[in-house]
Amino acid sequence: MCAGQILGVRMALLGLERLGIADPRGADRKRIVTFIEIDRCATDAISLVTGCRLGKRALKFRDWGKMAATFVDLSTGKAVRIVAREDARDLAARLYPHLETKKLQQMQAYYERPADELFLSQWVRVPIDGAEMPGTKSERVMCEECGEGVNFGRYVEVGGRRLCLSCAHPELSYWRPE
């Protein structure tokens, strides 16, 4: 267990509470979509608590490097964005100096401090395109350059040819052929 996991659990519980979603892994499981903004251990905790998964298209990753998540109730359209407060680390050090490491201080603070000392939250609007909804099926297009299949409209037309994003924009691709 690490401090980020505790923070992620608390962040998810707060988001669900604000939205009034009591059973995200059961009866309410199709009501929620979660946008996460960091690729750290808090993300795993948020997914575990909410039941939102990339494979179900209910977990959306935005690589913004922020300890933040937005929880969207699909049944009401309400959304709340929860951000970890920057001063929470300093608070942990001030309140728990008797604990020998920063990690232990943060874990204790993140476990027991009230949510308003750890997080900022705000109601937001999150327009979700129909093609982004969980369970949505889409046309599969073959890239006319590499021959690989592309789902969910993740292609572009270049010179009248349908190309996957890595063929259309090789300079932006995370991989290169050897």
Mind explaining what this structure looks like?
It is a single chain. The chain has 178 residues and is α+β, with helices and mostly antiparallel strands. The protein folds into 2 domains: 3-130, 60s Ribosomal Protein L30, Chain: A; 141-172, no CATH class. The chain has 6 helices and 9 strands. The protein has helices at residues 3-19, 41-50, 88-95, 102-112, 115-118, 165-168, and strands at residues 32-36, 59-61, 68-73, 79-84, 119-124, 141-142, 149-150, 155-158, 161-164. A 5-stranded mixed beta sheet has the order 2-1-3-4-5. Strands 6-7 form a two-stranded antiparallel sheet. A two-stranded antiparallel sheet has the order 8-9. The longest helix is centred in the N-terminal third of the chain and has 17 residues, at 3-19. The radius of gyration is 20 Å and the shape is globular. The two termini are 39 Å apart. The model has no long low-confidence stretch (mean pLDDT 91).
**In the CATH hierarchy, what is the architecture of the largest domain at level 2?**
2-Layer Sandwich
* SSE string: HEHEEEHHHEEEEEH
Give the number of DSSP strands.
Answer: 9
Count of helix runs: 6
Structural class: alpha+beta
Physical arrangement of strands within the biggest beta sheet: 2-1-3-4-5
Query: Could you list the spans in which at least 5 consecutive residues all have pLDDT below 50?
Result: none
Give the amount of beta strand, in percent.
15-25%
| Radius of gyration of CA atoms, rounded to a whole number | 20 Å
Main sheet? 5 strands, mixed
CATH class of the largest domain: Alpha Beta
| Helical content (DSSP H or I, runs of 4+) | 25-40%
Mean of pLDDT: 91
Total number of distinct structural domains: 2
Distance between the termini: 39 Å
User: In one word, what is the shape?
Assistant: globular
CATH topology of the largest domain: 60s Ribosomal Protein L30, Chain: A
Oligomer: single chain
